[in-house]
Amino acid sequence: MEYLRTPDDRFAGITDFAYEPQYVEVVGLRMAYVDAGPADGPVMLLLHGEPTWSYLYRRMIPPLVEAGYRCIAPDLIGFGRSDKPVKRSAYTYNGHVAWMKAFIAAIDLPLATLFAQDWGGLIGLRVAAEESDRFERIAIGNTGLPVGASLGPGFDAWLNISQIMPFMDCGALLQRATAARELTDAEMDAYRAPFPDEAHMAGAREFPTLVPITPEHSAVAENKAAWATYEQWTKPFLTLACPGDPVLGQLHHEFVERIPGATGQPHQEFEPGGHFLQDDCGEDVAAALIAWMS
After folding, report:
1. Distance set, CA 275 to CA 186, 278, 281 (Å)
2. pLDDT, average across residues 158-186
3. Which end of the chain, C or N, has fewer beta carbons within 10 A?
4. Span 109-119, pLDDT tens digits
5. What is the CA radius of gyration of the chain?
């Protein structure tokens, strides 16, 4: 598989995410991840989405580590410091699930708590449903698990613009989708760092088209099977959402209604806040997770 690897010097100027990246090989591709906190601490698997990377968790990892948790935050294939296949056809929903399952096998992930947002949820919820013995509890931010139906006009608008914008300026996109605070220039540049040019952006371009919002999309059957698992899921399941997100801000209600393990949990909504709650209120989200897990 032909791929590109973002030069290391693109990440050299990032000062607020001073974690040494680690790497494993996943089906012939190098996958990067951060592993922070005590080696024997309870494990948090933190999964990002589109078009971000593990840098998204820079405001959550420090308080989680201070509370004694070990945080593992991988960069999805096509994002961050991970390798980036150059053909859009290399990226599929089921392929991303397979890459993530290969990653957790490669690092021999201990029993973990999953926290996932955006595509991190679409992928992570599938992985947790298919390998449930690896996860003792799940928490989600703004995300979904669609099975062939529209997610609404907010997602439809994003799908359209993601395919026609001349260049996907990830820094500007993160700024527009963050409601409670202004990102600094340095933060926006950190989100731009993985993508020096369009050739590196095949995964970011392809991701929106992979969301199974029609019956013809691939992975509809697999997502339905995941829902069947979650409708019997009794382990703790928590939603921490920003309802002001016009894309995925209301989807958490379905999880609360359908998953037995979500009953009686301390679900929270954060306002103001947008799609990327880790940027808007990362410390508050981390505090909610710590209180819940303790």
Report:
1. 20, 9, 11
2. 95
3. C
4. 999 999 999 99
5. 17
Distance CA 186, CA 103 (A): 30
List beta partners, residue 245.
none
Q: Are 64 and 70 in contact (CB under 8 A)?
A: no
CA distance 118 to 110: 23
SS3 208: helix
What one-letter code names the amino acid at 29?
L
pTM: 0.98
Percentage of the chain with pLDDT > 90? 99
Q: What is the mean pLDDT of residues 123-145?
A: 98
By annotation, the residues acting in catalysis are 118, 245, 275
Interatomic CA distance for residues 278 and 257, integer angstroms: 24
Q: Are strands 29-36 and 70-74 parallel, antiparallel or unpaired?
A: antiparallel
Token readout for 98 is: 């397979």
Give the integer Cα–Cα distance in Å for 140 and 237: 8
Nearest to 92 by CA among 123, 53, 131, 48: 123
* 77/92 Cα distance (integer angstroms): 11
Q: Angle of helix 93-106 relative to helix 119-130, nearest 10 degrees? A: 60
Three-state DSSP at 279 gives helix
Cα(243)–Cα(251) distance, integer angstroms: 9
- The three-state (H, E, C) secondary structure of 148-189, written as one string: CCCCCHHHHHHHHHHHHCCCCCHHHHHHHCCCCCCCCHHHHH
Instruction: Please tell me the distance from the alpha carbon of residue 18 to that of residue 258, in angstroms, as a whole number.
Output: 39
Taken as a whole, the chain contains a residue count of 294
Cβ neighbour number for residue 260 with a 10 Å cutoff: 13
